Amino acid sequence: MTASVETFGDFTIVKELGSGAFGSVFLAEHRYMKKQCAIKIIPGRLSSDPEFIEKFETNISAISKLDHPSIIKIHNVSSYNGKYFLVMDPIVDSNQDTVNLEKYLKESGIISEKEVESILSQIASALDYAHKFPFGKSYLFHGSLKLSNILIQKSNRSIRAYLSDFGLNRLVGEKAVFTEIAKNMAEALNTYEGESFIKESALSSYFTNFAFLAPEQKVVGNRDYCDAKVDTYSLGVLSYYLLTGMFPEGNFEMPSKLRHDLNNFWDDLILKFLHQDPLSRPLHLVDTISKLLINKDEERKLVDTEKRAFDKMQLSFSFQKSEDQKLSFHPLDEEPDLKPVIKPPKIDRPTYEPDPGAIFQREMQVSRYEPKKVEVKEVEPILTEMVVVSGGSYLRGCQNGARDEMPRHLVSIDSFAMDVYPVTNEQFVRFIQAMGGEKDVNNNDIIRLRDSRIKRSGGKITIESGYSKHPVVGVTWYGAVAYAKWVGKRLPTEAEWEIAASSGKDYMYPTGETIERSQANFFSSDTTTVMSYPPNEFGIYDVAGNVYEWCHDWYAYNYYETSLQEPENPTGPKQGVYRVLRGGCWKSLKEDLRVAHRHRNNPGTVNGTYGFRCAADVSK
Is the Cβ–Cβ distance between 294 and 264 less than 8 Å? Predict the structure, then answer.
């Protein structure tokens, strides 16, 4: 399309509104109906691509069915002179110009928190709506959310956000999109050679687009396997950028540290949306915003409630205990005569019922089915040294943390013992040999070898070189429980884990009020050998970083409200969907290493960051 061309098919071109990797957009008027619209003309090199044409003709009908207040409606799809084009609603201002979010922010600067919340809520609603639409063999997702494809209309009363280019990257293909962006950038650089400010603008636009892509989209060869969780990540980038004017790169500061005028706690929402693991990102975006975006006035009410309950509990304890038995935090060496209770080993090996079809088999005609017997060996475990944590009353939770960490409250626990480091590969290999496979008696996976450093070749179990004393990973909650039974121990409760991690103190991290990379393995590229970093004050290693550790408890978002009322040896909800994980891992950000930070996942989930350690009861 050139400036001299005034018509395109049945449309009279009024003006160009913008251009991008998916083509140019023009404000146009239908020559006969005299109705204004926006038309997007797909680039010629895409319209001549047979693979694109096939995808376009097969799937464009699904995209055109989208009908949401915050998604630009497609009314018609056609072609003219060998080029496909889309006819859409025109989102223009009184000057007949389109204002995208990038332009709006340049004109407005840092926008108000209320505007940020309004924009995010509208985009989240649009994404939730579209993610329910079947598309090919999966479901529809945007995949290219960024500042330039969010259009803004503002009135005196409200701000409206509209999402454009929905699903077009799925039609074009990720590889073609990247190629198109690179070509556009190269053309801009060549066209304006010598004009450095324009070159810088072109580069800035390219890297801005790149910053919104989820980690899995940036991996060559992986882009065809992305799903709707990439939109969650992009919404997290958008949230952070709208609040701070910066992109979340590296070990970035939270909005609460950068803006003190915010009325809501945004940090948990940002961290949840920007999780590196797609499985840990939420899919229902509006619900997540509603649950995690807590107003400070509400938080103050929670703190007041917690304080009243805390004061009441202290008063209760003061009446119940004699003067020389007042509430205290017990040091580790207060009861040196306590010893861990190691129960008799128990192995939940797979068993097989007799073949139910055997009664129908005739002699000498059909060979009878005999299940293959699992070869098992009596293998001695390598036991881990344990430390005893004295029983008493301790604080758990964090009044300034995530909502599932509140209210901060007292719990009373009996003495227990904890392994000084997580279970290692060399320890877990012996368990696999004793079990005779990677399934428990209920046919649950205990470990998925491809997500671990343990390999099976020709029926032989081996450990990758150099990883014997690294913590085992890729273990399910079922596998952690089965191993603990085998060595006569158990998994720690969530309360026990937090008390052990904090050394029974009012610490933010196991190391005190802060933690450095010289003190724990986090924000790195792999696990490290256990005991590579200094222990905490209880003599326990690796409770921060290296691997997330499975705990006994089911997870519930509001469980601490129950724990506040029932503080004696809390063991979590009676039932649930997820099991608790604690401690952060080798690729975590610093925030995940807080002793009060709670993580969770399905008990059958495997992950290259999930491991465990054992606990035990104690006796004199």
Answer: yes
Q: Give residues with Cβ within 8 angstroms of 578, minimum separation 6.
A: 554, 555, 600, 601, 602, 603
Q: How confident is the model at residue 96 (pLDDT cuts 50, 70, 90)?
A: confident
CA-CA distance, 333 to 326, in Å (whole number)? Answer: 18
Q: Give the integer Cα–Cα distance in Å for 582 and 593.
A: 8
Neighbour count for residue 427 (Cβ, 10 Å): 21
For residue 185, the one-letter residue type is: M
Give 205-231 as a 3 state SS string. Answer: HHHHHHHCCCHHHHCCCCHHHCCCHHH
564 within 8 A of 437, measured Cβ to Cβ: no
CA distances from 206 to 149, 172, 199, 240 (A): 14, 18, 11, 19
What CATH number corresponds to the domain at position 155? 1.10.510.10
When mean pLDDT is compared over 63-77, 173-187, 349-363, 547-561, the highest value belongs to 547-561
pLDDT at 579: 96
For residue 146, what are its two tokens?
A: 């960024």
- By CB neighbour count within 10 A (0-12 exposed, 13-18 middle, 19+ buried), where does 116 fall? buried
Token couple for 328: 């205290």
Q: Tokens for 15, please give them.
A: 């003006």
**Domain for residue 327, yes or no?**
no
| Angle at CA of residue 19, ends 16 and 20, nearest 5° | 170
pLDDT digits (tens, 9 = 90+) for 313-371: 444 444 343 333 333 344 444 445 788 988 888 887 776 554 444 444 444 444 454 54
C-beta of residue 387 within 8 angstroms of C-beta of residue 418: yes
pLDDT tens readout for residues 260-286: 888 888 999 999 999 988 888 988 898
**8 Å CB contact between 228 and 143:** no
**Domain identity same for 422 and 442:** yes
User: Does residue 514 surpass a pLDDT of 50?
Assistant: yes
When divided into structural domains, the chain yields a total of 4
* CATH number of the domain bearing residue 569: 3.90.1580.10
Burial 477-504 (b: 16+ CB within 10 A, else e): bbbbbbbbbbbbbbbbbbbbbbbbbbbb
Same structural domain, 560 and 518: yes
Q: Are residues 401 and 438 in the same domain?
A: yes
Identify whether residues 153 and 197 lie together within a single domain.
yes
Q: Which of the residue ranges 197-206, 293-302, 404-413, 602-611 would you say has the lowest mean pLDDT?
A: 197-206
| Cα(393)–Cα(397) distance, integer angstroms | 13
What's the distance, CA 356 to chain centroid?
A: 45
| CA dihedral (526, 528, 530, 536) positive or negative | negative
Tell me the residue range of the domain where 266 lies: 101-296
Tokens (6 digits) for 243: 């609040």
* Res 30 pLDDT > 60: yes
Residue 11 has pLDDT above 70, yes or no: yes
Residues 6+ apart with CB under 8 A from 473: 451, 452, 453, 527, 547, 607, 608, 609, 610, 611
- Give percent above pLDDT 90 in the chain: 44
Model-wide pTM > 0.85: no
First-to-final CA distance of the chain: 87
Indicate whether 308 and 284 sit together in one domain: no
d(CA 167, CA 140): 7
Angle among Cα 498, 500, 501 to the nearest 5 degrees reads 65
